[in-house]
Amino acid sequence: MGKIVHLVLFDIDGTLVESYDFDTECFQAATKDVLGVTIGPDWSRYNHVTDSGILIEVIEELGLKSDSDRITEEVRERFVSRVADHISCHGVSPIFGAYEFLSQLVARQNVAVAFATGGWSESARMKLDAAGISFSSIALASSSDHYSRTDIMRLAEKRAGNGRYDSITYFGDGPWDQKASETLGYNFVSVGSRISSPQSIRDYTEANVALRYIGL
């Protein structure tokens, strides 16, 4: 018998970093800067609730598909620069206990960890760094890789490196996180109070409860 290996994936905004609200505002502002339209904040109306997924639909609705590469690049640049401005003015906090919890998981021989975010990679890394929870050893898959959250999660699974896991758990805070986990057959744990799920933690000060949900 080999050792049991658990893969633990994490969303970032609202799950590891207190960034859900300002991230939404920066994304709306960047889209308005470039396209002149106000979108959201009811993200659940979009098929793919990721930065690139939402933008693809907005571009299609506006009939601008032929110009989508340029528009995407401009919106992404505006967004990343707005996030950087926000962080330099206000800073950004980790969800309570996130650093300690990640450190504990990374230190375990029988656990692999990866980040799977619907945000673009530049802004995701920026937020993790600013919140003091960047781990160079943790792989990241993002909206820069794919517009579909399930594809991002599958890619994070692959990048985590082992290939075969006895269990896969995803920590998220949005209904789309829960839905994607169900689609992929992942064990799901909700963080915070934005959604209710059978397995939930307020934050990572409830580390023992979180570990139990993972199966550790």
UniProtKB/TrEMBL annotation:
Highest taxon of source: Bacteria
Record pathway: Organic acid metabolism; glycolate biosynthesis; glycolate from 2-phosphoglycolate: step 1/1
Catalytic activity as recorded in UniProt: 2-phosphoglycolate + H2O = glycolate + phosphate
SUPFAM superfamilies: HAD-like
E.C. no: 3.1.3.18
Xref: InterPro entries: HAD-like_hydrolase_sf (IPR050155), HAD-like_sf (IPR036412), HAD_2 (IPR041492), HAD_sf (IPR023214), PGP-like_dom2 (IPR023198)
Top EC class, one word: hydrolase
Example of a GO MF term: hydrolase activity
Keywords: Hydrolase
Family affiliation: Belongs to the HAD-like hydrolase superfamily. CbbY/CbbZ/Gph/YieH family.
Record's protein name: phosphoglycolate phosphatase
Organism: Microbulbifer halophilus
